[in-house]
Amino acid sequence: MLIQLLFVMLAAMNIAAYFFMWKDKVRKVRAVRHGWRISENTFFLLSLLGGFIGVYCGMKRFRHKTKHFSFKFVVILSAFIWLILMPYWYFFLE
Questions:
Q1: Which pTM value belongs to this model?
Q2: pLDDT for 6-24, tens place per residue?
Q3: CA–CA separation, 30 vs 63, rounded Å?
């Protein structure tokens, strides 16, 4: 049951992250007029909560935030946490 809930949460985080990447790219036009955009911390949080695939796909698909080292670092760090450390914790430390 816990694993199923985790998969649903990860799917939701990735869909949300991809959607927010698209929405922020669309709002880039508003930035010229000093409009509201999604903060970088929101993307960092979504990535660390499991939405790293959605953030990465959004970066590649929309060519958004691709030159920012901090985004690449957080996505790689999040992938390491979720793909290496979490399974290790679940299978070997429990």
A1: 0.81
A2: 899 999 999 999 999 898 8
A3: 17
